[in-house]
């Protein structure tokens, strides 16, 4: 089983190389990409089963033992992230294949899309499995390099302009992260996460806090945590629909994952918990207020993406087992639902020619299946019972109430308000774009929605519903993962059987 751990990184990279060779054979390109991501999904499920049953699964790359060599670690948190990210990337790939078959415009995938998309996937999985800070940095750089290509795919003026902002912000966050890596190594003499768990505890409080805040600054930019989130609503909406969807679903969550991993393994004790709570509350409220002011579906979903990052950071800031469990559950939920909504926005644009709600109307009558595909995940995002969004939010709010204190109670109120305003924003999209009389863009639809695009979106809608049906077992997995995160010893002992030094 240990030999399976590198496969989620290696298989997409091999697939990227093969699809680049097959640049003039689009059908074979598509086949290789689908097989690679389907393989990733199967491997991820096997790793999750093993990690849940027996503890973290570790591979020493090149045969060099930790802490000298590079290690890849699939504990319950990493394996769960692998499963949901593999499912989402596979569905988005199928969606993009359907879009590419349906049109030949600038928004459709081109020959370079498949190798770049697979490199992006390899970067995401490498970040989840990284057992040291530098390899985590490498994972971020791999996915960012691929994202620079994908966000400007087609080369339109709008994409180049917004893509430039994205590139500048990403490079800045990477410079901060690399600086933090250098400072951590200078202070401790190691970058291995398991070894750092012991050595950071021995540092003076001021040095330890400075390292923690530097890492939080880097990850906060990547996760779009307020006030470091202004770049996101302007960058994502202009990209092609499948690119926007996978960015929204996964790229910010890699930042959230890095915060969860470092805050629990490297910096337990909550030195920065107050700062994280304030940032979480502001992220929720400012993001959702931005959403209700939007008239374009993609920009509205971009602001809800920012807003709901606050729920996850709230759970991390509380730091209790229940709060961490709720945060992990909400990450899984939000990856699925937010990706689905951006795919739906792409379908709306395909069907009606625009995502500007001022030009939309009557979609519930013109395209009833599209209306269903929007309504279900929108209500899930808003937290309507009994969907997984409701269950995740209740878990986090209950953890806040149980924690006690003035600031957690403020965040409980902010979370409740954010949920209500999310419902308002989602209902506004429904009333304007789907329910009112047809407008200019929808009065004379000229296209039929490709079956593969509909099928891929429907698969993610079903996955979102499955999270509700399987909420009990999923919460058990997230609770076990939270316990391991707080204990730290399962991770440390798996990587360093002889104990940290």
From TrEMBL:
Q: Topology in the membrane? A: Multi-pass membrane protein
Return the Pfam families for the record: Proton_antipo_M
| Compartment(s) | Cell membrane; Membrane
Q: What is its main location?
A: membrane
Ranges for domain NADH:quinone oxidoreductase/Mrp antiporter transmembrane? 130-422
According to the record, the segments passing through the membrane are: 6-24, 31-49, 69-98, 110-130, 136-154, 166-187, 207-232, 239-260, 272-293, 300-321, 327-348, 369-387, 407-430, 451-475
Q: Which UniProt keywords apply?
A: Cell membrane, Membrane, Transmembrane, Transmembrane helix
Q: Report the InterPro entries cross-referenced here.
A: CPA3_Na-H_Antiporter_D, NADH_UbQ_OxRdtase, ND/Mrp_TM
The Swiss-Prot or TrEMBL record describes its family as follows:
Belongs to the CPA3 antiporters (TC 2.A.63) subunit D family.
| UniProt name for this protein | Na+/H+ antiporter subunit D
């Amino acid at each position: 089983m240990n030999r399976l751990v590198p496969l989620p990184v290696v298989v997409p990279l091999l697939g990227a190389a093969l699809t680049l060779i097959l640049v003039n054979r689009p059908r074979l390109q598509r086949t290789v990409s689908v097989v690679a991501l389907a393989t990733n999904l199967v491997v991820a499920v096997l790793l999750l089963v093993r990690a849940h049953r027996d503890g973290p699964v570790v591979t020493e790359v090149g045969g060099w033992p930790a802490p000298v060599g590079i290690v890849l670690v699939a504990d319950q948190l990493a394996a769960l992230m692998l499963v949901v990210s593999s499912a989402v990337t596979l569905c988005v790939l199928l969606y993009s294949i359907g879009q590419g078959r349906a049109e030949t415009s600038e928004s459709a995938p081109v020959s370079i899309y498949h190798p770049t998309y697979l490199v992006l996937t390899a970067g995401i999985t490498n970040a989840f499995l990284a057992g040291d800070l530098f390899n985590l940095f490498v994972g971020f750089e791999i996915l960012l390099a691929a994202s620079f290509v994908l966000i400007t795919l087609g080369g339109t003026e709008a994409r180049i302009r917004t893509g430039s902002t994205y590139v500048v912000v990403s490079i800045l966050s990477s410079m901060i992260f690399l600086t933090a890596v250098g400072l951590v190594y200078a202070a401790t003499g190691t970058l291995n996460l398991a070894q750092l768990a012991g050595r950071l505890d021995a540092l003076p409080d001021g040095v330890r806090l400075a390292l923690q805040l530097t890492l939080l600054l880097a990850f906060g930019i990547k996760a779009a945590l307020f006030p470091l989130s202004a770049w996101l609503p302007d960058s994502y909406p202009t990209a092609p629909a499948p690119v926007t969807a996978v960015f929204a679903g996964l790229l910010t969550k890699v930042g959230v994952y890095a915060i969860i991993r470092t805050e629990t393994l490297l910096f337990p004790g909550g030195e920065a918990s107050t700062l994280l709570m304030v940032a979480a509350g502001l992220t929720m409220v400012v993001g959702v207020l931005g959403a209700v002011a939007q008239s374009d579906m993609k920009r509205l979903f971009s602001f809800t993406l920012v807003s709901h990052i606050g729920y996850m950071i709230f759970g991390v800031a509380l730091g209790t087992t229940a709060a961490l469990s709720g945060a992990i559950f909400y990450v899984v939920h939000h990856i699925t639902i937010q990706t689905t909504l951006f795919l739906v926005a792409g379908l709306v644009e395909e069907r009606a020619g625009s995502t500007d709600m001022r030009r939309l109307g009557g979609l519930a009558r013109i395209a009833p299946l599209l209306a269903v595909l929007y309504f279900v995940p929108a209500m899930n995002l808003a937290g309507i019972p009994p969907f997984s969004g409701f269950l995740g939010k209740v878990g986090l709010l209950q953890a806040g109430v149980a924690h006690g204190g003035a600031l957690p109670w403020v965040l409980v109120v902010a979370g409740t308000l954010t949920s209500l305003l999310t419902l308002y924003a989602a209902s506004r999209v429904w009333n304007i774009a789907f329910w009112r009389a047809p407008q200019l863009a929808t009065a004379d639809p000229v296209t039929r929605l490709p079956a593969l695009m509909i099928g891929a979106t429907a698969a993610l809608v079903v996955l979102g519903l499955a999270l509700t049906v399987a909420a009990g077992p999923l919460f058990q997995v997230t609770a076990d993962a939270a316990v391991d995160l707080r204990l730290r010893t399962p991770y440390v002992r798996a990587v360093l059987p002889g104990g940290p030094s």
